[in-house]
Write a structure and sequence with these properties.
mainly alpha; Arc Repressor Mutant, subunit A; Tetracycline Repressor, domain 2
Length: about 220
């Protein structure tokens, strides 16, 4: 029987407290409007203790992206891809993407406001989250494309188009007020989007699919 190390759990809890306090303050005051002293006060710890977990405020920003963005969902894609065809995979990814944005409203605010203002933070987001997402989905697309489709479609551009379509819908509906002015059903939007991609890229086989029997 395994036992948990109380000190290890305490360190994890403290790190989580720092991340939550940082996210809340960054979303409220902005990245540059928040000091490490502010974060320490909100997390009820000493300022020096923050540096035991994070080397800098930018390091904190990267950790927030890693923790609260869709990266944790993205990292499950290789396993999920082995069980689903392309339609099923894209449906899971799209629904998970919207769930992450809705459940982490402060992160969404930070994403759509803060990173637009400060080039360095925007670069962090694109390097850590967007590029990794596009690259991972692009690899899956490429593995599943037929030779003919691969000669006609760039898998990385296809992945970029998919993620951009999701983000554009969310911004239109939730940020620009579209759900009141030009409402659209999210499920219907996702199903249409996925269907267009499947028609262009092909249904794709799961990795576990064996040879088809003829007879």
């Amino acid at each position: 029987m395994s036992t948990r190390d109380p000190s290890h759990q305490a360190r994890r809890d403290r790190r989580e407290d720092i991340l939550k306090a940082s996210l809340h303050l960054f979303a409220q005051r902005g990245f540059h409007g928040t000091s490490m002293r502010d974060i320490a006060r909100a997390a009820d710890i000493t300022e020096g203790l923050i540096y035991h977990y994070f080397a800098s405020k930018r390091d904190l920003f990267r950790a927030i992206i890693d923790e609260y963005s869709f990266l944790p969902l993205l990292r499950t894609l290789p396993d999920i891809a082995g069980q689903l065809d392309t339609r099923g995979l894209l449906l899971v990814l799209a629904r998970g993407f919207f769930d992450v944005l809705r459940q982490n409203t402060e992160f969404t605010r930070l994403l759509l406001q803060e990173v637009q203002v400060f080039p360095e933070e925007k670069e962090v987001f694109f390097v850590d989250a967007v590029s990794e997402s596009i690259g991972e989905l692009g690899r899956i697309f490429e593995e599943r494309m037929s030779d003919r489709t691969r000669s006609q479609v760039d898998p990385l551009i296809a992945a970029r188009l998919f993620f951009n379509s999701l983000l554009a819908f969310f911004v239109e509906q939730e940020i620009l007020g579209g759900k009141h002015i030009l409402p659209a059903d999210e499920q219907t939007y996702v199903e249409h989007l996925v269907e267009m991609f499947v028609k262009r890229l092909g249904p794709g086989r799961t990795k576990s699919a064996g040879p088809r029997l003829i007879g």
